[in-house]
Design brief:
The protein is of the alpha/beta class. The protein contains 13 helices and 10 strands. It has a 10-stranded mixed β-sheet with strand order 1-2-8-7-6-5-4-3-9-10, sandwiched between helices. Strand 1 and strand 2 form a beta hairpin. Helix 7 packs across helix 9. The chain is globular.
């Protein structure tokens, strides 16, 4: 069975049995490279990363990186817009090297905005099972005006991707539709992704998603059998989830046939005995893309044993920023209580926080092999080697 990783971490989501046609995309790019070069010259765009990307494409007749299923779907849908496809792939390359090469682009290439910190489910592999977390001051919803401030800054900086969802279930927010409509009109944000457990994915919510051309719906689902599913997704109803996902899939097919929205079912192999072929065969009937990954120890991070064997620098310090509902900025959501928060966007800008002394010191410490000096970095199982 063929698998393709969706991230650079050693433990990550993996696409199940996908045939990625990278050569087709590369041939399309080579055929149209002069159009993009004319665009760059006309708009006086000249930077080292873009030049390296284009030079390699011309010299080696290919991309500098392997694409995944999500990239393939995105570029195929936008094939008629040459400039957008090139711009998107260069963004993806910048995102890749920011983490791989520990390169600070001056801004985070990827932003995760938390709309709601609470969740209706209690999955055993999630920090929502930590009762000291599921109360004030950690619980809340984002203010719409603050959301607009963050999105406006992201658009101005050229942040290429925004995911809505982190510690909680975003479809619980009463102004979800207004937020999706607002962000969908930003020209410099290529990808808008929404993570959901699909509990509240009714017709109204599905219409909001499809109408606003959300690029990717990532639906968390961990099994294909009712009993195991409901054990892993505690408080869920398997039949209701299936009905909701089928509604999204059917509405896209019948009412929005030209929709850009990719539907991906993403699972956690918590018991490490998931039959991935059966999992793929079950969910691909109602999605475009199925992935699964091993669990990371995020259900009680702060009481984990220290990982003496893991001390490589975490790539997330360079390639993404998490923004909580209350404005706090965090390097990751494994630190779900924000011990390592390095600022607040309610009284500062994305760029200023991203480049402040606090996060720079954390980055330097990771590079110098001092990751183990930071709690909970020393208790996190994420490794990139």
């Amino acid at each position: 069975m063929d698998t393709f990783k969706l991230g650079s971490a050693k433990i990550n989501q993996v696409s199940i049995d996908e045939n990625i046609k990278q050569k087709d995309l590369e041939e399309y790019l080579i055929q149209n490279i002069s159009v993009f070069e004319d665009y760059l010259e006309k708009n006086k765009i000249n930077d080292d990363i873009t030049n390296k990307f284009l030079h390699h494409l011309k010299e080696k007749k290919g991309l500098l990186f392997k694409i995944n299923k999500h990239i393939e779907i995105y570029t195929k849908f936008n094939k008629s817009d040459i400039i957008k496809v090139f711009g998107y792939l260069i963004f993806r390359y910048k995102f890749l090297i920011a983490g791989k090469e520990k390169k600070n682009l001056g801004y985070p290439p990827y932003l995760l905005i938390e709309l709601v910190s609470t969740c209706n489910l209690r999955c055993p592999f999630c920090f929502q099972t930590d009762k000291s977390f599921t109360k004030k001051p950690f619980m809340g919803v984002i203010d719409f005006d603050f959301f607009k401030k963050v999105v406006d800054e992201a658009d101005d900086l050229g942040i290429g991707a925004v995911t809505m969802g982190s510690r909680g279930e975003p479809t619980l927010h009463k102004q979800l539709g207004e937020m999706l409509e607002y962000i969908s009109n930003k020209k410099n944000i290529y990808e808008v992704k929404l993570n959901t457990n699909a509990t509240f994915l009714n017709e109204k919510v599905c219409e909001i998603i499809l109408k606003n051309n959300i690029n990717q719906m990532v639906i968390s689902a961990d099994h294909y059998e009712k009993e195991t599913y409901e054990k892993l997704r505690k408080n869920s109803n398997f039949e209701k989830i299936l009905k909701n996902i089928d509604t999204l899939y059917k509405m896209r097919s019948e009412q929005y046939p030209n929709s850009i929205t990719e539907i991906r079912v993403s699972g956690v192999d918590f018991e490490k005995k998931l039959d991935k072929k059966k999992f793929k065969d079950f969910w691909i009937k109602r999605s475009d893309h199925v992935s699964a990954g091993d669990p990371l120890e995020r259900w009680d991070t702060y009481h984990n044993d220290v990982h003496l064997d893991i001390n490589d620098p975490c790539e997330q310090l360079w390639d993404r920023m998490y923004v909580w509902f209350d404005g706090k900025v965090n390097p990751c959501d494994a630190d779900y209580k924000s011990k390592l928060s390095f600022g607040n966007l309610k009284n500062s800008s994305i760029k200023d926080v991203w480049n402040n002394k606090q996060i720079e010191l954390l980055r330097e410490s990771h590079i110098c092999g001092s990751r183990s000096n930071y709690d909970p970095c020393n208790k996190c199982g994420a490794t990139f080697v």
